[in-house]
Amino acid sequence: MPAMLRPAGRQQRTGGRLGPHTSFERQLMKMRIISRCITFVLASGIALFSQTTPVFVGAAYLAPTPPQVAPGQVLVLYYRAVELAEGGIPRSGHAEPPIPTSLAGLSMQLTQGSSLWNVPIIEVRQSDPRRPGFSGPACVLTSVKAQIPFEVDPTIVQDAQSGSVALAPTAQLVLYAESRVVATTSLQPVPDNAHVLTTCDAGEDYQASDSCDRLAFHGDTTPVNAGSPAYSGETVTVRLYGLGQTSPAAITGVAAQPGYVLADVLGSPRVRASLTPFVNAIASAPRQGDSPGLYETPATISAVGLEAGSVGVYHLSVALPNGLSPVVPCGGSVRSNYVLNVITSQGVELIPLCIGR
């Protein structure tokens, strides 16, 4: 069941970020930060006022729906108002495989129907991204990097007569701090929810204004760029989260072994790839709807499956078509001259490539 897809047209720039320049804008920024902190405190069940305060939750044509997740997907969940560790010290921790189900005093459980799973937690961080002059636990941001169990049921059922589609039952994710319930949220399991890994997925600190760029790699694991272009006939690799269950069935929380491959669904591949000539594509462009273009060239996927030694990371090998002939060579102001399109049921993710002549 595809998520919200953008209309045809592969290149759409997201809105820019402007800093406040006037006293009014600075005051407005402070008000927004305070409002944001209050919103998350209320959502966490902490009473700030003696009466109910209306809170804006979004704008759309449908009611807000639970975030979609795939079996085995690694993702980061963000919380406000999670208490600091003992002594007022920010919680912090990183785990290597096998991934534990408790880290830095936090733990998670996922339930779906009568099934219950302990959730592996890869990393915990607490930081305070506010501007100076604000204080209080309500604005402390807690990030929890976790893996959705492979055992969760993502089955989608389609009625043969009406064609209507029913998603799998939702799942409930509960966060605990020192065994006390902190927050509960609903998640919607789906067969796949692909995410091409970016420069922001490496685990380093980054700011909300940073550009999170998708990457493709040579066979020696170095990135493809203007200084190190790829060539026709070469096989490049892409790393992803969220491609779902494998064959044989993968094990949650442990480093993958070789041979856990992505199976087709009813004879159809779950991921495709193609190349499109395009100069200086945006590496962080939002996911697009799939609308094949006139100049798009299919690319062969030689292998796709879990990356050996990693947890929840998929390795996609793409053989670049022979005969690619870039009109504009890379160099100078030209950062890329092709786009590698990674296509799944959720849409298209664009990866700028530099193809050498």
Summary, kept brief:
With 357 residues, this protein is mostly beta strands.
Describe the structure.
The structure is a single chain. The protein is mainly beta and 357 residues long. It has 2 domains: 166 residues, no CATH class; 166 residues, no CATH class. Helices cover 6% and strands 29% of the residues. It is built from 1 helix and 19 strands. The strands form 4 sheets. Strands 13-14-17-16-15-18-19 form a 7-stranded antiparallel β-sheet, with no helix packed on it.
Number of strands: 19
Largest beta-sheet characterization: 7 strands, antiparallel
Going by helix content, strand content and strand pairing, the class is: mainly beta
Q: What would you call the shape?
A: globular
Strand order of the largest sheet: 13-14-17-16-15-18-19
Q: State the separation between the terminal residues, measured CA to CA.
A: 40 Å
How many domains? The number is 2
Helix content: under 10%
Radius of gyration equals 22 Å
Question: Average pLDDT, to the nearest integer?
Answer: 84
